[in-house]
Amino acid sequence: MKNWKLGYKFAMLVVLAILGILASIILGLSELRSHLLEDRKLKTRHVVEVAAGILGHYQALQAQGVLSEEDAKRQAVAAVRVLRYEKEEYFFINDLDNRSIMHPLKPELEGKDLSGFKDPDGKLFFTEFTRMVKKDGAGFVDYKWEKPGKAKPVPKISYVQGFAPWGWLIGSGIY
């Protein structure tokens, strides 16, 4: 009987140790996922800042009188339209009245008022992009969007940044 009690206590110690290790692993994985997401968000912010620099370049050419405003905008849109990172990630441009200026994967949106456009959960995310830019100048917005190869829209986070000289915002997102 004494050996049984000792064996039972030893087994309980082993079970508790295993549970502790599992809890540590789960906590560590959760923290790793959080860090990876933050890292991807930071990278997205940086690439949007670079793309906004392209808009700035063409706006500077306009300000110098090298290009008309119409030509500067047209050339800026053309330059950003073909930009990609990680092979398939892209940028979009809207104005601050929720009108699409450029979307390389959905050109049918261009020129359209997107203020009533909702994701499957009812979020007016284009309006949210504009609100974010008007309020803070830039920031992240989460929503659901169609991902190539997926049957249903999936969670996405976009970083949007305002471009005040033309009343535009430029953004990109991660799934």
Kindly summarize this structure in a few lines.
With 175 residues, this protein is of the alpha+beta class. The protein contains three helices and five strands; from the N terminus they run ααββαβββ.
How is this structure best described in words?
Helices cover 50% and strands 18% of the residues. It has a 5-stranded antiparallel beta sheet, sandwiched between helices. β4 and β5 form a beta hairpin. The radius of gyration is 24 Å and the shape is elongated. The relative contact order is 0.13.
Helix vs. strand class? alpha+beta
Number of helices: 3
Main sheet properties:
5 strands, antiparallel
> How many DSSP E strands?
5
Outline the low-pLDDT stretches.
none
The main sheet orders its strands as 2-1-5-4-3
**Which percent range fits the helix content?**
40-55%
Spatial extent as radius of gyration: 24 Å
Give me the strand/helix succession. HHEEHEEE
Salient structural properties:
50% helix; 175 residues; single chain; 3 helices; five-stranded antiparallel sheet; alpha+beta
List the topology elements.
Layout lengths: L1 H62 L5 H13 L10 E4 L4 E3 L22 H12 L1 E8 L8 E10 L4 E7 L1
